[in-house]
Amino acid sequence: MAEDVGKKIESLREKVRHHEYLYYVVDHPEIGDAEFDKLMQQLKNLEAAHPQLITADSPTQRVGGKPRAGFVKVPHSSPMLSLDNTYNEEELRAWERRVHELSGRTEVDYVCELKLDGMSLALIYEDGKLMRGITRGDGSVGEDVTLNVRTVRSVPLSIPREKLKKAGIPADFEVRGELLMPLAAFKKTNEERQSKGLSLFANPRNATAGTVRRLESKVTAERGLDYFPYMLLRDGRTHFDRHWKRLDALAAAGFKVNQNRKLVQNIDDAWAFIQEWEAKRDSLPYEIDGIVIKADRTALQDELGFTGKAPRWAIAYKYAARAGITRLEGIRVQVGRTGKLTPVAGLVPVPIGGTMVANATLHNMNEIDRLGVKIGDWVRVERGGDVIPKVVEVIKDDEDHPRGHKSFHMPEKCPVCGTKVVRTEGEVDYRCVNANCPAKLRETVLHFASRGVMNIDGMGDALVTQLTERGLVKNVADIYKLTKDDLLSLERMGDKSAQNILEEIEASKKLPLERVIYGLGIRMVGERTAQFLAEHFGSMEALESAGVEELQDVNEVGPRIAESIVEFFSIAANRKLVERLGEAGLTLTGQKKQRGTKLAGKTFVLTGTLAHFTRDEAKKMIEDAGGKVTGSVSKKTDYVVAGADAGSKLDKAKEFGVKVMDEREMEDIVGG
Question: Is residue 413 annotated as a catalytic residue, yes or no?
Answer without folding.
Answer: no
